[in-house]
Amino acid sequence: MRNIEPSHRQKAAKRVLVMTAVEAEREAVLRGLRGAEGIEVMLAGIGAASAAARTARALAACGPYGLVVSAGIGGGFAGKAEPGSIVVADAIVAADLGAETAEGFSSLDELGFGATRVPVEARLADRLCGALLEAGLPVWSGPVLTVTTVTGTAETAAELSARVPGAAAEAMEGYGVAAAAAIFGLPMLEIRTISNLVGPRDRSAWRIPDALAALETASSILGEVLLQP
């Protein structure tokens, strides 16, 4: 891991709010940031509803911010992101927000009730991917799916992959964080480090310590990227 030496002279160009679901993720991000100023890490809770509410509260009470980041561990789609790798979202997608119909699933977009896809700050996401690759880390760029129920079967994994072509990872908070950021007109990033493959649940195969270690490393490099002029 490349180190960021803490310094009161070092500040992110804009104040950044990083939201993680649980304390273990928050601690990993903080270790990686190594005291870089201007980047604050708060808890979103689990699920999109909690993430939206807590992110909106933080933005209203503690702002102004210039960027919001959803960060944590998640599941990777086979052939896209293997356990231990890093995914930088190129879009944040509420993958199961919609309705079941006789013809199958219809997204909120298809129903005409809103949008399920939130764009990310593409230039910054590209810079982060480049820095991770330069550091020799396994990194993927692709849609990160927000789901309300973690996938537990191969059939659902295949359905989600077909529904969102190129899907790289799934988690439970990104869309909620992004929805709050959008209300405040703020750009967004999502970073997920992979603990397991999306599909049949096999807790014995989950690599949570490896994913948290990768999150720490990714956060170190995120800090470097944000500190660049």
Description:
With 229 residues, this protein is of the alpha/beta class. It contains 7 helices and 10 strands. The chain has helices spanning 23-33, 48-62, 108-111, 122-134, 154-163, 174-183, 208-227; strands spanning 11-20, 37-43, 67-76, 86-94, 98-101, 104-107, 117-119, 139-146, 169-171, 188-197. The strands form 2 sheets. A 5-stranded mixed β-barrel has the order 3-9-8-4-10, surrounded by 4 helices. α2 packs parallel to α6 and α4 packs across α7. The chain is globular.
Key terms for this structure?
single chain; 229 residues; alpha/beta; 5-stranded mixed beta barrel; two-stranded antiparallel sheet; 7 helices; 10 strands
Describe the structure in brief.
The strands form two sheets. The chain has a five-stranded mixed β-barrel with strand order 3-9-8-4-10, surrounded by four helices. The longest helix is centred in the last third of the chain and has 20 residues, at 208-227. It is 36% helix and 30% strand.
Protein structure class? alpha/beta
Mean pLDDT: 92
| Strand elements, count | 10
Secondary-structure element order, N to C: EHEHEEEEHEHEHEHEH
- Write down the oligomeric state: single chain
Low-confidence segments: 1-10
Largest sheet, spatial ordering of strands: 3-9-8-4-10
Query: Judging from the principal axes of the Cα atoms, what is the shape?
Result: globular
C-alpha Rg, in Å?
17 Å
Topology:
Blueprint: E1 11-20, H1 23-33, E2 37-43, H2 48-62, E3 67-76, E4 86-94, E5 98-101, E6 104-107, H3 108-111, E7 117-119, H4 122-134, E8 139-146, H5 154-163, E9 169-171, H6 174-183, E10 188-197, H7 208-227
Helix pairs in contact: 1-7, 2-6, 4-7
